[in-house]
Structures are given as C-alpha cells and as structure tokens.
Specification:
Layout lengths: L2 H17 L3 H7 E8 L5 E3 H7 L6 E14 L3 E14 L2 E16 L2 E11 L9
Helix pairs in contact: 1-2
Length: 129
C-alpha cells in the first residue's frame, strides 16, 4: 500500500475509535507529542485527546467526513477535508461542520497523528480573491 493509503487507513481507525469511545487505537495511532487546535482555538495534547474520546468522554452519534484529500512527502502526509460531527459531552449537545487538517508522520515503522487543527465552517458570502 502507498503512504497515502496507509495514512487513510490510520485516519479511519482513529475516526472509528472516536465514534466508539475506544481509546486503545488512539494510544496506537496518536503520537506522544501530539498537538491539536480545536475550533475555539484551544491547544490540546495527546492526554486530553485520549481522555476526551475514552469511555467517559465525548459521545459521538455522527462523525462523517467528505472531500478528503492527501498530500505526501517522504515521511509526512497531510489529510484535509470536511467533517460533520454531532453528539454530547456531559449534559451538552453539540453539532459542528468543520474543515480539518491532520498531519501524520512515519515513526517507529508506522504512521502517527502528530498534529491536527479544525475550523468551524460558517455560512456566508463567498470572498473573491
């Protein structure tokens, strides 16, 4: 399998782990030095991600992705796309339509998620460049 195909398989495993609140695959696929930026601009690390998507964390009923694209270099692959997520966190219901950017690095003979960033998609007029 090519690097982009391998990374998309890891991306899918992470998505399924988040949907099922199974932190096991996240331990395997998320780098120890992972950094993420959420839609509110808050920076979080691997421990927070594992806690948020573990058994007592976020309960996602929907996590759909579209327009997924990849760009690859020797030991790095970027994955971009759109996501629709819906669920609950404690007593709070949420729904977001997001654009995302995930960065994967090839380490210790496997691909690891090392960074991610999401931005809320806001409806509005197109801006001409």
């Amino acid at each position: 399998m090519d690097p982009e195909g391998e990374v998309l398989a890891v991306f899918s495993a992470i998505q399924q782990a988040m949907l099922s609140n199974d932190a096991g695959p996240l331990h395997d696929h998320v780098a120890k030095d992972y950094r993420g930026v959420d839609a509110g601009g808050r920076v979080h690390d691997r421990d927070l991600m594992l806690s948020a998507y573990g058994p007592d964390g976020v309960d996602l009923d929907t996590f759909e992705v579209s327009e997924v694209e990849t760009m690859a270099w020797e030991d790095t692959v970027l994955v971009t796309g759109n996501a629709w997520i819906r669920g609950t966190y404690g007593d709070i219901d949420f729904e977001h339509r997001l654009r995302f950017l995930d960065v994967y690095a090839h380490r210790d003979a496997s691909w690891r998620l090392v960074a991610s960033q999401v931005t809320d998609i806001v409806e509005g007029p197109e801006i001409e460049s």
